[in-house]
Amino acid sequence: MSHFVPTVSVKIGATLVPLRGVSFCPFPTQEGFYFAVCGSRYVCVCLAKSNGETVIVQSYSDEDEKEAFYCCAWTLIKDTTEVLLLAAGEKGIVRIINVSQGTVERSLVGHGQMINCIAVHPRDGSLVASASDDESARLWNIRTGAMVAIFAGHQGHRGGVLYVDFDMLGEKMVTCGKDKGVKIWELKHCEHEIETSHRCADMQSPDGYSTYDESHKRKRLFRTRFVQFPLFSTFLLHDNFVDCAMFVGQLIVSKSTSNRILLWQPQADDAALLPWNNQYTVLADFPLPHSEEWFIRFGMNLNRTLLAAGNTQGTIRIWNIDELRSTPMEQLSIPTKQAVAQCAFSPDSHIFIAACLDGKFYRWDLQQNTD
Fold this sequence. Notes:
Layout: E1 2-11, E2 21-24, E3 32-39, E4 42-49, E5 54-61, E6 69-76, E7 83-89, E8 93-98, E9 103-109, E10 115-120, E11 127-132, E12 137-141, E13 146-151, E14 161-166, E15 172-177, E16 182-186, H1 191-202, E17 210-212, E18 218-220, E19 225-227, E20 232-234, E21 242-248, E22 251-256, E23 260-267, E24 279-287, E25 299-300, E26 306-310, E27 315-320, E28 330-333, E29 340-345, E30 351-356, E31 360-368
Parallel strand pairs: 13-19
Antiparallel strand pairs: 1-31, 2-3, 3-4, 4-5, 6-7, 7-8, 8-9, 10-11, 11-12, 12-13, 14-15, 15-16, 16-20, 17-18, 21-22, 22-23, 23-24, 25-26, 26-27, 27-28, 29-30, 30-31
């Protein structure tokens, strides 16, 4: 038997900075696990030590006072040793922060409205997806800043896209949003653009899309791909905003503002692409009372066996997905009873962080009972 016990709470800044996002760095160090929290125009890098101590090691403040970061994620580009931290939010710009240097390395500009989520490709750290209120998800190559593909249009979302996630192989993406829709997209439709974007980076393209030929004339190697037809689409699964969706193998976990999280199996094939609403099978229903705000996101551990989500009352529920039980395996509480915006597990699943609107993040550590 094991359970999480509270270790520490840390306040960010001298004034109230409501925290909206938290993300663990997937690359462990000898010192412990690094993670980031974001809120308002601030992003803080913290170190969770194995002895229970947590320290803030770096803080970034955006130059635009009107910026408000809603999400953050970590990546490491192949053949490099520099860990990059991505943050985005109200201004619709993805900031790429070089953590070792403490500087903004690049900004990804193209979304027309705020960005609600960032996801990193599981096999290629230079590919990053973003979900925006402009009704699109976009795929970027952060080596050059090139926009590889836009997932929107004819059968795309009809409202703000609130979340995006890759499957384990990096062959598909799932998106969800304010239109109550959940969609699965195949990346095979933009394989050429992905490959060419890497070639542009290798050739040190001046703009990420083109190069110069022997006569010094600029030659465009690729254009951003528009993907308008998802592999799977439904608006019937949830009856309100769908603010979070993640892959669990070939299954999907999704949460709506209707106070529930569902584990389900999509059923889509070539013959089922024409209907606007594809078929699905719900496997488990996890109640989450008082979670009607769209910015409350769940978190999962690295192997997608643990699911955790908080609510507006400061209560956090943790489920073991494999058990398919609606009753949580554990329930945690925030002392201030403030809303929990997002939760995250360390790569080894032994540390749990909750980012809250009271300007603090809270840490719990897994304890093994020997009784």
